[in-house]
Amino acid sequence: MNKILVAYFSASGQTMRLAKTIAEVSGGDIYEITPTQKYTSLDLDWHDSNSRSSVEMRKPDSRPSISNLKPNLDGYDSVFIGFPIWWYEGIIQTFLESFEWSGKNIVVFATSGGSGLGQSVEILKKSCNANFKDAKVLSSSTNSASIKKWLESLGI
């Protein structure tokens, strides 16, 4: 049986909700990727070019630190990794670069109100040696039935 972990970073709660649904549908465990320095609403103001999130997004080498970097990945075959697509990859790269991934499947999911994945998966692939499965963008209207169908299509 394929043992699954669903790891996610969520700023507004949308990614958290969908990560919990994926964990519930898959029977997987859940893990929240928590930044050492929490993001405030001012940090998340992408209209402000000097906000923390705007500055981090402009820096490809940005790696926000994670406060709870504790999961033992040894028992997991597949890890779903979720984040808001507008956030880009920084904190997820921190997570990926912190573990050994060989022999594991990674399934990226991003939450968005309308944006696609862009180059996110290609960027994340550079952070670890894993088998990346088909990624998906999920929206606020994504429900457990559509998640179940997606999981079945992955064959894991």
UniProtKB/TrEMBL annotation:
UniProt superkingdom: Bacteria
Domain Flavodoxin-like: 3-153
GO molecular function: FMN binding
InterPro entries named among the record's database cross-references: Flavodoxin/NO_synth, Flavoprotein-like_sf
One Pfam family linked to the record: Flavodoxin_4
Protein name: Flavodoxin
Annotated organism of origin: Campylobacter hyointestinalis subsp. hyointestinalis
